[in-house]
């Protein structure tokens, strides 16, 4: 270490140093390219080749890293200290060599996450557009279809659009078709906005997904929505996907397809906290588009929610590790 610490020994921990110092990583975590010694990795996916309107989410991971320096080590509301529960690192980016060919790009992303999951590491991904959820699910759903809690303004269960079936408005239809998601264990929260056709999201309803429009969320509240998510997802393994456009654009304007009348950041924080205890195996937060942001509002909202997700994902991983150790103990003579 070139810089010597003279007076405050606690500053040997980079997460305790002044937040304006150092090279940005997610939550000021150590940067790692070696998967050994990592339980949970925060991964950037700087890809927006699947957008249908405004580009810019490829810049999301870099800005989110910078903004995440504002986040401290302990969740003030829940007392959770995620970095004490499991070994967490910034694994860098799942960047794409050939970003101009959508399906090939998705294949590259899936290969990256297969390596991560194959090493026993739980991924928390930062997009990027929502099309990245499909290749991530191809890696994490290797043992069978998952349940999912999906917070978004849109169901993202569309079909062919302008010649592609793999854009950011269709990942979860493709995931069901590929056997990666069990639609009966999927809940979609915060859905709203105008439609091109009345049956634009028909696949969600017809396949058995539980769709919670924003009006129902507003009438019944975040606590009810969390309990409904628990009911739908049940006790099996599950994925959490959070699109920042689920948040009202008054608090998160920097996204490609904003929809007025959304969830507040506080409601989102409390909703995610209340999902603690689910058997989460991976998660993502997507669609932060810095070129469309105002004063860093969206990235701040994004990293705030990302930290809440990290807390419950770290808790899930710690429980999984504990169960595995206990299982191994029972198997011993």
**What fold name goes in the CATH topology slot?**
Arginase, Chain A
- Our estimate of the beta-strand percent is 15-25%
Tell me the CATH architecture: 3-Layer(aba) Sandwich
- Class based on secondary structure composition and strand pairing: alpha/beta
Low-pLDDT runs of 5+ residues are none
Helix content: 25-40%
For the largest sheet, list the strands in their spatial order. Answer: 2-1-3-8-7-4-5-6
- Which overall shape is indicated by the principal axes computed on the Cα atoms? globular
CATH superfamily: Ureohydrolase domain
List the topology elements.
Layout: E1 40-45, H1 60-67, H2 82-85, E2 88-93, H3 102-118, E3 122-127, H4 133-140, E4 146-151, H5 171-177, E5 181-191, H6 202-207, E6 210-213, H7 214-220, H8 222-233, E7 238-243, H9 265-273, E8 280-286, H10 297-331
Parallel strand pairs: 1-2, 1-3, 3-8, 4-5, 4-7, 5-6, 7-8
Helix pairs in contact: 1-10, 3-4, 4-5, 8-9, 9-10
């Amino acid at each position: 270490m070139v810089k010597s610490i003279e007076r405050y020994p606690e500053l040997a921990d980079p997460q305790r140093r002044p937040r304006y110092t150092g090279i940005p990583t997610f939550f000021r975590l150590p940067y790692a390219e070696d998967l050994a010694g990592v339980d949970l990795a925060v991964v950037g996916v700087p890809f927006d080749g699947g957008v249908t309107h405004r580009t810019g989410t490829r810049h999301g991971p870099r800005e989110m890293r910078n903004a995440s320096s504002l986040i401290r080590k302990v969740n003030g509301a829940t007392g959770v200290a995620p970095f004490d529960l499991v070994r967490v690192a910034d694994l860098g980016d799942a960047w794409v060599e050939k970003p101009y060919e959508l399906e090939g790009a998705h294949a590259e992303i899936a290969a990256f996450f297969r390596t991560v999951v194959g090493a026993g590491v739980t991924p928390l991904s930062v997009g990027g557009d929502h099309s990245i959820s499909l290749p991530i699910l191809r890696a994490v759903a290797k043992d069978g279809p998952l349940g999912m809690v999906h917070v978004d303004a849109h169901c993202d269960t569309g079909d062919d659009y302008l010649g592609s079936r793999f854009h950011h408005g269709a990942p979860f239809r493709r995931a069901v078709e590929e056997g990666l998601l069990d639609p009966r264990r999927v809940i979609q929260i915060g859905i709203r906005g105008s439609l091109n056709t009345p049956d634009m999201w028909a696949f969600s309803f017809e396949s058995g997904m539980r769709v919670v429009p924003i009006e129902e969320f507003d009438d019944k509240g975040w606590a009810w929505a969390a309990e409904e998510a628990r009911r739908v997802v049940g006790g099996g393994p599950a994925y959490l996907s959070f699109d920042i456009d689920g948040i009202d654009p008054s608090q998160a304007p920097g996204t490609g397809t904003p929809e007025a009348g959304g969830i507040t950041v506080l409601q989102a924080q409390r909703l995610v906290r209340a999902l603690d205890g689910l058997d989460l195996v991976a998660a993502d937060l997507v669609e932060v588009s810095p070129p469309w942001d105002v004063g860093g509002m969206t990235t701040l909202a994004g990293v705030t929610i990302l930290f809440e997700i990290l807390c419950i994902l770290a808790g899930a991983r710690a429980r999984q590790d504990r169960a595995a150790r206990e299982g191994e103990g029972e198997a011993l003579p």
